[in-house]
Design brief:
Number of strands: 4
Helix content: 40-55%
Strand order of the largest sheet: 2-3-1-4
Number of helices: 3
CATH class: Alpha Beta
CATH architecture: 2-Layer Sandwich
Number of domains: 1
Radius of gyration: 15 Å
Order of helices and strands: EHEEHEH
Length: about 100
C-alpha cells in the first residue's frame, strides 16, 4: 500500500520544519520507501508497517505539541508494489509534454 500523511503540531507557531525533521527521522528508521513533499510524506509498504510508522510519527509529534493533527490518505491496490515511482512514471509515459516532479 501507499499512503500520504502529514502530522502537524497545532500549538507550536507558524514554522513546523524542526518538528517535521523529527517525524522524518522516525520514517527513515522504519526502513520503508518514502518521499518527503512540501505537503506531506508518501510512504510505501505493508499495511501494518505503514500504519505503525504513521502511529509512531504521531506519537513523536505529540511529545512536542499539546495538540496534533494527523491526516492520512491511503491507496491500497492488490498486488501492486514500487508505486512511489511507478505511479509517476505511468502518468509521464501517457503525457504529451514534460511534467514537473
Amino acid at each position: 500500500m501507499i499512503a500520504i500523511f502529514s502530522v502537524v503540531p497545532l500549538t507550536e507557531g507558524e514554522s513546523i520544519s524542526p518538528f517535521v525533521t523529527k517525524v522524518i527521522e522516525e520514517v527513515d528508521k522504519s526502513g520503508l520507501d518514502y518521499k518527503l513533499t512540501a505537503m506531506g510524506t508518501i510512504i510505501e509498504g505493508p499495511w501494518d508497517s505503514v500504519m505503525g510508522t504513521i502511529k509512531k510519527c504521531h506519537a513523536v509529534m505529540r511529545r512536542h505539541s499539546g495538540r496534533v493533527l494527523t491526516s492520512i490518505t491511503i491507496d491500497d491496490r492488490k498486488g501492486a508494489s514500487k508505486r512511489l515511482d511507478g505511479k509517476v512514471r505511468s502518468v509521464m509515459s501517457k503525457s504529451k509534454r514534460a511534467i514537473r516532479t
